[in-house]
Amino acid sequence: MTTPSSSDTAGPLVDTAVLDDLGAQLGAREEAEEILEMLLDSLDDRLSQLVAAERDGDAEALRRVAHSLRSTSNQMGSLVLAEAAGRVEHGEADAASVLPVARAAEAEWHAWLGR
User: Name one GO biological process term (predicted).
Assistant: First the structure.
């Protein structure tokens, strides 16, 4: 299994233009903020589920959680996290490899929210 390369965590992990565009599409930045807050509220649980599924040898749960994290991260502007979760989803990386990327993206999402 692989771990993230230095290119996975170098530079911005979140394209804030995606978040800005989402706010514009929804009619208000606050709408995008609410969606992002839901993601952030569930992030710890998703990461725990990812690691637990791998530890327990539950390949289906691992793929399901990784897929969900990949999709949501992509929609919220973190292509790097989406790619890291996709590698787990396809059995190309360990669940633990997603954690540092997720934490870095989380910090950038919080910065966009002004927290």
Answer: phosphorelay signal transduction system
Q: Does a structural domain hold residue 67? A: yes
Domain annotation covers residue 94:
yes
pLDDT of 55-65, one tens digit each?
Answer: 999 999 999 99
Query: Which residue range(s) make up the domain with 66?
Result: 12-113
DSSP 2: B
φ, ψ for residue 62, nearest 5 deg: -60, -50
Query: Are 109 and 14 in contact, with CB atoms under 8 Å apart?
Result: yes
Could you tell me the pLDDT band of residue 37, with boundaries at 50, 70 and 90?
very high
- Kindly state the average pLDDT of the residues 5-32: 85
Exposed, middle or buried, 114 (CB in 10 Å: 0-12/13-18/19+)? exposed
Read off the pLDDT of each residue in 48-75 and give the average, rounded to a whole number: 97
**Residue 80 belongs to domain with CATH number:** 1.20.120.160
Q: What's the confidence (pLDDT) of residue 11?
A: 77
Residue 6 lies in a domain: no
